[in-house]
Amino acid sequence: MNKQLVVGAALAAVMATGVMSPAHAAGKEKCYGVAEAGQNDCSNLAGTHSCAGQSSVDNDPGEWKLVAKGTCTDLGGMLKAEAKAKYEAAQG
């Protein structure tokens, strides 16, 4: 009984952090500028954090979420090359 509880809690923690195995990430791509505050999947372009759930504003162009491959621009987002170019241009 305790073992099931521990395994369930560990699985819930992994799911909550947005960590995905390579098999789960297949068919997905990083989409920048579509994450709501606290809903990003990992580190940002600025390097100010390296954790999921750390974005502080909606649709920050430096934050990303995994989305179904081919849907990023439909969602109003950018792929990494475009997001990085915009970030670097803004940094001057």
Could you characterize what this model shows?
Residues 5-18 have low confidence and may be disordered. The N and C termini lie far apart (58 Å). The chain is built from 3 helices and 2 strands; from the N terminus they run ααββα. It has one domain (21-91). The protein has a two-stranded antiparallel sheet with strand order 1-2. Helix content is 35%, strand content 11%. The radius of gyration is 15 Å and the shape is globular. The chain has 92 residues and is of the alpha+beta class. It has helices at residues 2-17, 22-25, 80-91; strands at residues 28-32, 64-68.
Q: Which H/E pattern describes the elements? A: HHEEH
Q: How many strands, which pairing sense, and closed or not: the largest β-sheet?
A: 2 strands, antiparallel
Strand content: 5-15%
Tally the beta strands: 2
What gyration radius follows from the Cα positions, in whole Å?
A: 15 Å
Q: How many individual helices? A: 3
Share in helix:
25-40%
Outline the fold blueprint.
Elements: H1 2-17, H2 22-25, E1 28-32, E2 64-68, H3 80-91
Antiparallel strand pairs: 1-2
